Every structure is written in C-alpha cells, then in structure tokens.
Fold this protein.
Amino acid sequence: MCQAQLPTHTDLYAAVMATDVPDLLTGIATTRAIRRFAADPIPEDDLASILWHATRAPSGTNRQPTRFVVLRDGPTASEAKSVLGRGFRQSWGRKSADAGLGSGSALDPTSRKGRQRAAMEHFVDHFEQIPVVVLACLVRYRAPNPSEGSSVYPACQNLLLAARALGYGGVMSGWHALVEPELRDVLAIPDEVAICATIPLGRPLGNHGPVRRLPLNDVVFDGAWNQIAEWAVDPPGTRFAGPSPTSSS
C-alpha cells in the first residue's frame, strides 16, 4: 500500500494563489506598513516569487537598473542587520524627539500616538530578528539626480504588494542613510550603486487592513491647481487620516 505523499510547498503555494490571494485593488487598498514580525523565515520559493513580481515594475527606458541585496542569516547578513539596527534605533530616537512622541498622548498605549510609538519601538528594538531585510539599490548610469528613484520605487511597491498577496508584510524606509558608509563596507556595495530603500519583510504580528489616507477631494484637482474634482468621491466606509466632508473619524 502506497503511503500518501505530503503536498509540496509548490502545491501549497498554488492552493494559496487559487483561494486566498486578494484581488489587485483589495491588495492596494489594504497593504499596511508592517513593523511587527514573527521570527519565522520566509521560504525561498515565496521570497523568489516576491522578488520576481518586484522586477515586473517599469523603469526609465526599460533600463532595469534596480538590484536587490537580500539579508537573511549568515555572518555577513547578520553583521549588516546589526549595522542597520543601530542606525534605525538612532533614527527613531531623533524622529521620536522631533515629533513629540516621548510625552503627552504618546505615553497612552490606547491612543493612536501611543500605538504608533509602541509599534516603532518594537520595530527598532527587534530589527536584528526580522527574517528578511531587502536593500533596493540602483546601478547608476548617469550622475545622481532628483528623479533617479523613479526607476526603483515602483519595484519597491510591487515587492510590498507581492508580499501582501503571499501573507507577508513589510515597510519601506530610508533609515539606512545614517549608517550607509559602514553598511557599504560590510556588503561590498560599489560607489556607483545607490541604496534607495530598506524593506524589512516577514509574517505580520497583526493584520493588514484598510489604510487611512486624506480624502480624495483634498488631493485630486480637476483641470487646474486647487480646483475641486466633484467626481473624486471616496468609496462608502472609507476611513480618513485627516478631515473629510463626510467623516470625522
């Protein structure tokens, strides 16, 4: 009698793709910045799928200058994560002081500021334990210029959406800048390569869900600057990060 064969990870991935992946618009509307991660590693086939979808993004004249340095485990990756963790804690210390997140309602764990503060402190305090950290880099083909990120950041968003589809989460940050020289030395990143973003990834400790943004008619103008677009109406049930003509939440 033949023993039943256990499903492979490829089989499980196919099942997830068939049943649990959010549709594109739902994924866009519900992909939150995730800063609390389980310690579970990301399987290599999931990681490969996330990065494959990231590389589907457009780039200027289709030069495809984006490169991804993936930090998991091992001596070099662990050293780089340690360098990044130190930089992220220093950056958070500065931001926390500048934003007044060390006093007032930020000390109330039930307030929005308090929840934000707790999430950020957990994030930076546990940075080295994040399963995967991706550095999104740009191989420069001309002198640095303000628009060069336009060939990298679409890939970063694709990466986050692909992670969301497979049950993971992440957040894009520029806090590597404080320790960039040391990070470059550890990872042997050449001078002609720009580090454009740091994206930690893992299983969320928490949930994705609808994100809060400004009302559509605050950010969409019709025909000229500051001309209200009467047709730009938020879907029913939208929750806002700022004032809204229909909701105060």
Notes: The CA atoms of residues 69 and 135 lie 5 Å apart. The domain at 21-211 is CATH 3.40.109.10 (NADH Oxidase).
